[in-house]
What does this fold into?
Amino acid sequence: MTRKTPAQDKPATQAGKDDYGETLAAASILVVDDEPGMRNFLTKTLTPRCKRVEQARSAAEASDILDRAHFDLVILDNIMPGTTGLDWLGEQRRVGFFAETILITAYADLDTVIQALRAGVADFVLKPFRANQILNAVARTLDRKYLRRENYLLKHALSESGTTARGRLMGKSPAIAEIRDMLNRVAPLPTSVLFTGASGTGKEIAARTLHGLSDRAENPFVAVNCATISPDHIAEELFGEIEGGERRKDGLLLHAEGGTLFLDEIAQLPDQVQATLLRVLEDHRIRPAGAEREIPLNLRFLFATNADLEQAVAEGRFRADLFHRINVLNIAMPPLKDRSEDIVELAAVFMSEFSRTLGLPALDLNQEVLLKLSRYDWPGNVRELRNLIERSVILGEFPTEFSGAGEVTGAEAIETLELVEQRHILNVLDACDGNRAEAARRLGVSRKTVDRKCAAWGI
It folds into this structure.
């Protein structure tokens, strides 16, 4: 008869995942205790389940370790030679302490509990304790930590809802295929990327796509529009602050730890913040306002701008050293007029999306409407097309300049080879200002072929 394996007999990594939550697997924990037996017990219990576990024999050694590395959680003994854990914790908060804390002690009097709460201790475990007790405390603390981070990032995303891009990178044009190929090539690398291009070309969507292709995909993607945050507050929003050693604000960079930070409208950063960002990029460490300690940072940076950064550098509005630091790899997003083959697909996707989300009937995308959409220049790029479709669904009709009563509609209008060919040839003609000989050259066909097609279309 085969005996069922109890939880404590499972492989440690499996037990940690099944019984204590997946948050332990990515956690870095520092154990601070002067008793070797307790340090070794905690290290042996946590190491199979956590990403990294280190131990310190004293408060002084713990301070040195925190100067070199960042931890998600500190398990802290209260009674140690020369100081108490709570006194040490108070000192650390004044210089810059951004980890969660679990206090372990054999002396649980009311005064100690009150001091622990005032010091911001997340949980309190009495000695002696069993392995499952400390593991449960660690799991609870980390769950609360990540829940607070998710709530903070959700509020940030909602505050930027007017400028935050969603969705996927769509289209099959050669221009967008080249962008996809580049994103796939750089996704596994830690290299910073600068996305350039006119407003509405999909820079943030491309950045989100890059994040999704990378090994950071399960971690946060934090988008920050530098133009929407007050210049007086952007430093604390990005890098965080400590006020009087009591109040602590984790900046967006710390909340994005392990993931990707996307800084849009990078040209709008104030001079002082540009200097701070340059140091962060070079040292991979941040120092929140009011803190004495720098915090190591594991973060990939992506940037975007619709401005001419080289001109901004020449005019003294943007630091040259920062420009050269972020301009390692430049991905220029093409305007919609240069990827006209994608307009029909985008229009169909947006029509389906807004009909569903608004609860209103979809409008017919017949061949005349699609032809007019594909021949328009779209100075506002994909954003303008999206807004036009949304407005048309709400009003129940297309604007006059895009309306039409074609007989072919739906998938047939989108996919029929003859209509696809017509839209493509007319787009090339438009790009050549009506010069049929040049259009024929670009299309790789004879001038007579273009003339014959145009005659058949009544052009």
Residues 1-18 have pLDDT under 50 and may be disordered. The radius of gyration is 29 Å. The first strand starts at residue 28 and ends at 32.
